[in-house]
Amino acid sequence: xxxxxxxxxxxxxxxxxxxxxxxxxxxxxxxxxxxxxxxxxxxxxxxxxxxxxxxxxxxxxxxxxxxxxxxxxxxxxxxxxxxxxxxxxxxxxxxxxxxxxxxxxxxxxxxxxxxxxxxxxxxxxxxxxxxxxxxxxxxxxxxxxxxxxxxxxxxxxxxxxxxxxxxxxxxxxxxxxxxxxxxxxxxxxxxxxxxxxxxxxxxxxxxxxxxxxxxxxxxxxxxxxxxxxxxx
Length: 232
What we know:
This protein is 38% helix and 25% strand. A five-stranded mixed sheet has the order 1-6-5-8-3. Strands 2-9-4-7 form a four-stranded antiparallel sheet. It contains seven helices and 13 strands. By secondary structure, the protein is of the alpha+beta class. The protein has two domains: 3-147, Jelly Rolls (Sandwich), CATH 2.60.120; 150-229, Arc Repressor Mutant, subunit A (Orthogonal Bundle).
């Protein structure tokens, strides 16, 4: 099993950071662009003429309901690709929006150039398919959580996913190796920033987690599992 397949077969998290993809030769085919925080990369239903590689920073993918409510699909970080949804089915527009969640550097690639490259590069095609599959698994997991779990349970479950994917050992304890804001966590689990902040604070006060040097430490994983997976 490759490093990429290992990552995909682990716990599904909506936060895709420092992915094990290698996109050569695509960077040479595109234009490097810098987006400031909250800048739009593309909007839902716009023509999907370009795909983007993420060199650094974080991009939030989301859909918007008819009454204007946003639902985050995923946060894409370094080595991710966005805008690839129409490559294999000739969809003429993006089916979601993308906005910079932080300052980010991207490579903008003409979709037709990507399609031509994929015709003669099996490994590149395979990586795109793996990424599409990963995003499908994320959406399936989100659908299950939204239909079955409370906001507090979804937050606990997301912390478990993050530590499974980005966890680092410090003695006998595990900590989540990436930092995130209350708003970013709230976006991922479809709740308010206030609920996310209150839940994290309660978990700290009850000794389930702690925060050290800007990173969350899992102090009582068994308790976090119980809180995140037990149905109402």
